[in-house]
Amino acid sequence: MQFIFVLPGWEGSASDSRVLRDAITRPNGLKVPNGYYYLVDGGYTNGEGFLAPYRGTRNHLSEWRDGHTPSNHEEYFNMKHASARNVIERCFGLIKARWGIIRSPSFYPIKTQCQIITACCLLHNLIRREMSIDPIEHEINELEDGENMVEGDMLGTIGPSDQWIAKRNDMALQMNNEWRTNRHH
């Protein structure tokens, strides 16, 4: 529930892939350790370092409420992917709840708006690290907190890859098989 990279300033109409490409090619940009990945939504390509849900398959948590269960490995993967991505959405909800200045349109110059967003993210992270219980989050609902620092080589490019598609498929099949096995015990 902390921000690891913030890139304010892009127009809302910019494509996700264009913003991502900019983020990872900057000198101090987003770093993706080799062998690791970030979860991304369906607007992104499933490629090395960026794990996207299956397209054309249910991928919203609301679709599995009311007792519906996934019917195959792709749906199961998308359900788990959506659950993990929900943490990201909750983090944005928390920062908006905490900082009223970013909830409404701003009339500051763009440079100042970018600095305000960055400052709000930094203060959010400081609060997350220093307070054992975040009162704002407690009001919204409690979440588990996880943190992993990784050293080593980082990815420097993005793009679709057959190898990464196969990796996602293998992961989805394994997750689905474990779920089905545990469900019957």
Automatic annotation (TrEMBL):
Reported cofactor(s): a divalent metal cation
Gene Ontology cellular component list: nucleus
Keywords of the record: Hydrolase, Metal-binding, Nuclease, Nucleus
Domain DDE Tnp4: from-to ranges: 2-125
UniProt main location, coarse: nucleus
InterPro entries, sorted: HARBI1-like, HARBI1_dom
UniProt-listed Pfam families: DDE_Tnp_4
A molecular-function term among this protein's GO annotations: nuclease activity
Location within or outside the cell: Nucleus
Family: Belongs to the HARBI1 family.
Cited PANTHER family: NUCLEASE (PTHR22930:SF281), PTHR22930
Stated name of the protein: DDE Tnp4 domain-containing protein
